[in-house]
Structures are given as structure tokens and as C-alpha cells.
């Protein structure tokens, strides 16, 4: 029997994706579902040290000794919070996907034991096929994408899962997933931009992006967000899109005949957002295989028809938790040829965050659902308590 949280609760929160929710397409052979979760750690485990943060000791008791050592070694509590949430989310996904007890979840890394992509393994360390997951965290947010391509499990008399290692009819394997979060406003990029210009700043990353991609970052524009929350389109901006410096006055004449005056800082902000859209796409793609930004083929991976998603919050708004635009029509090329077995999506969160997801393999008929924001207590800790020693 496949035991999870209360079924109605799962469906209401999006933790359970019905098998027929594939955007009008036929469900894939053998079933399969995609999970996307988010935890906002910015208000969790307050204080200056994870060792003394209220509730942290209980959460730490639910993960491995190795993970606890890594978390306690973090210099800043903000990083420790994200690492702790990441460890909990991985266990939650694996426990639910495999229908096993929380304490039976075992983690390892594919390939390189230190830098390889995290994976679930059985009691003797063999990689469990049919599921894949990836985690990203940035500036307080932790996000997970998970793929569950398992067929319904059968159990042995000792309650161990049967058939995970042997080939299983109907198993849809070969699907890998990747995810990345960026925060546009987190770094002080303007110091270099004011000295070198936006073009000089973009060229710092020539080892990551192709010439075509960098040209588009410098001189193309999607839209400009004004301080009143309104947008100017690329057509309304016109040749002002060639501006690569801040602190200049720009005046646009709109088709209506009206003039709009704004600082070029808004334009540079829009181009930074576009740069980080490219960066987020590229990072989530290379995380499909667990490789880093130093992958030798990274400049051969190119993205076209890139559009940065409009933010969830108006400029300079402090409201938290608002989701923005989703964009899923980017084109992916490798060595000049289109990659047809990958699906990518990027969505904005609040004013400065963007989250990109990538799925590759047998992805026909699959759709990445909207993110579900998990409640630490109700969705994670209560589940762990109920399934600690039994599925």
C-alpha cells in the first residue's frame, strides 16, 4: 500500500499530482508525476546560530549525522537554514515517492561521491531507478523539483519494497530534472557596471555564455518596469535599448503621442533581469546531469527567444510571497542544433527571484506544475513524525 499524507490534504496543497493532469495529453506509459516545492526559510529558526534556534534541534534530528555536521559548519545562519530545509525536502520527496519510512531514506551522489548529483539509494547503496530530484537554494528560498516514474510498489513480507532494482514493466525511466534559483538584487553588480558599463560587466561571463547570448544581454530588452508598476515594451523603448549605462535621463514618445521620462537605471535593471534569466536557464539545464558551470560544453549550450518573466511584485514593493509570470517557450540549442527532448520553464517570485526548471528525456506529455509552498510544520515535520519508522 502506498501511504502518504492525508490524500485530501495532498490534493488541496498540490503535493499530489493526479495521474491524468497532463494538460490534456495522454498520461505517460507507466504513470509518472512531477513535484515542485518551495520553502521560504527567511522567517524559520530565528537567531544567530542554528544550534540555538528554536525548533532547529528537532529538525536536525531528522537528518543524517553527516548533514548535521555540514549545517553546523556554516558560517552564517541563513546558509544553515537553507541547508537544513534542503535536507528535509529531499527526505520528504523520497519517502513519498518510494512509499518508505522516513528513517529508511538513504542518500548518495551519482558518479563523484563529493560533487555528483544527489540520488536515492537502497540499503546496499545501489541507485534507485525511476526517480530523480534536484534542489536549489538562494537568499532564503529553497526549491525542489522531483520526478517519480515508479510503478505502484509491491512489498515483501518484511515490508521492504520489491522490484525497485530489477527492471519493471511500465517504468518510465531516463527522465532527469534540474532546478535553479537566482536573485537579481542580491549582489552588488552595479559597482562593476558603473565602472565598465553593462557590456564590460556581461563580458566577464564570456566563459559561460556564447557571443550571441552576450550580445542579446547587452542590447536586447524585454520590457522596462517603471516605479509605478507599469511596463514599457521593447517597441515603446525603441533605440534606447542600446543604452548600457546608469544615471541617464531617457524620454520615450509612445504611439499615443505621450512622453514618458525615466532614468536609465530602470533600463539597466531590465537588462540585469534578462542576464539572470539566461543564467538561471543555463544553470538548471546543466544540473540535469549534476555538472557545474565549468562544464566544458557550457558555451555550446545556447538559449534563444529568451524572455525574462515579469515580477510578482511591483518595483520597490516589500510584499512577500507573490508569484509572477511563467515563461515556457525558450528554445534550447547544443552545438547549433535544437534540443528536442527537454522542457524548460522559468517563473518569477516576488520582485527579485526567478526559478527555472528543466526536464530531459522521455518528457512527452509531462508538464511542470506550479510551485507548492510547503509549511514546515504541517507538510514536513508532521509527516516525518507520522512516517518515521513505517511508510
From TrEMBL:
SUPFAM superfamilies: 4'-phosphopantetheinyl transferase. Residues 58-145 form the 4'-phosphopantetheinyl transferase N-terminal domain. It comes from Cryoendolithus antarcticus. One of its GO terms (molecular function) is holo-[acyl-carrier-protein] synthase activity. This is holo-[acyl-carrier-protein] synthase. It is an enzyme of class 2 (transferase). Its EC number is 2.7.8.7. GO terms for cellular component: cytosol. InterPro entries: 4-PPantetheinyl_Trfase_dom_sf, AASDHPPT_N, P-Pant_transferase_sf. One of its GO terms (biological process) is lysine biosynthetic process via aminoadipic acid. Keywords: Transferase. The lineage of its organism: Eukaryota, Fungi, Dikarya, Ascomycota, Pezizomycotina.
Amino acid at each position: 500500500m502506498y501511504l502518504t499524507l492525508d490524500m485530501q490534504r495532498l490534493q488541496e496543497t498540490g503535493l499530489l499530482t493526479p495521474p491524468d493532469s497532463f494538460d490534456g495529453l495522454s498520461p505517460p506509459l507507466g504513470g509518472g508525476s512531477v513535484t515542485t516545492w518551495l520553502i521560504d526559510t527567511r522567517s524559520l529558526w530565528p537567531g544567530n546560530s542554528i544550534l540555538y534556534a528554536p525548533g532547529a534541534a528537532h529538525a536536525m534530528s531528522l537528518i543524517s549525522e553527516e548533514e548535521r555536521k555540514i549545517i553546523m559548519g556554516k558560517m552564517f545562519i541563513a546558509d544553515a537554514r537553507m541547508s537544513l530545509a534542503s535536507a528535509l525536502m529531499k527526505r520528504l520527496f523520497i519517502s513519498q515517492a518510494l512509499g518508505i519510512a522516513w528513517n529508511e531514506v538513504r542518500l548518495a551522489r551519482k558518479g563523484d561521491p563529493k560533487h555528483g548529483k544527489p540520488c536515492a539509494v537502497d540499503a546496499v547503496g545501489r541507485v534507485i531507478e525511476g526517480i530523480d530530484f534536484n534542489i536549489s537554494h538562494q537568499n532564503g528560498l529553497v526549491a525542489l523539483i522531483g520526478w517519480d516514474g515508479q510503478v505502484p510498489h509491491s512489498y515483501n513480507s518484511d515490508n521492504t519494497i520489491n522490484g525497485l532494482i530489477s527492471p519493471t514493466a511500465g517504468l518510465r525511466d531516463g527522465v532527469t530534472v534540474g532546478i535553479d534559483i537566482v536573485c537579481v538584487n542580491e549582489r552588488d553588480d552595479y559597482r562593476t557596471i558603473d565602472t565598465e558599463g553593462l557590456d564590460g560587466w556581461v563580458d566577464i561571463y564570456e566563459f559561460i555564455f556564447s557571443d550571441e547570448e552576450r550580445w542579446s544581454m547587452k542590447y536586447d530588452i524585454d520590457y522596462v518596469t517603471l516605479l509605478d508598476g507599469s511596463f514599457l515594451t521593447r517597441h515603446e523603448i525603441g533605440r534606447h535599448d542600446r543604452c548600457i549605462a546608469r544615471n541617464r535621463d531617457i524620454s520615450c514618445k509612445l504611439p499615443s503621442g505621450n512622453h514618458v521620462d525615466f532614468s536609465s537605471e530602470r533600463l539597466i535593471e531590465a537588462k540585469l533581469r534578462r542576464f539572470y534569466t539566461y543564467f538561471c536557464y543555463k544553470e538548471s539545464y546543466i544540473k540535469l546531469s549534476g555538472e557545474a558551470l565549468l562544464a566544458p560544453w557550457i558555451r555550446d549550450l545556447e538559449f534563444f527567444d529568451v524572455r525574462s518573466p515579469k515580477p510578482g511584485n511591483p518595483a520597490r514593493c516589500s510584499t512577500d510571497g507573490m508569484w509572477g509570470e511563467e515563461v515556457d517557450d525558450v528554445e534550447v540549442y547544443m552545438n547549433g542544433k535544437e534540443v528536442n527532448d527537454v522542457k524548460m520553464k522559468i517563473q518569477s517570485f516576488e520582485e527579485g527571484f526567478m526559478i527555472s526548471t528543466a526536464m530531459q528525456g522521455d518528457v512527452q506529455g509531462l508538464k511542470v506544475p506550479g510551485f507548492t509552498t510547503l509549511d514546515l510544520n504541517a507538510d514536513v515535520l508532521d509527516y516525518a513524525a507520522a512516517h518515521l519508522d513505517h511508510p
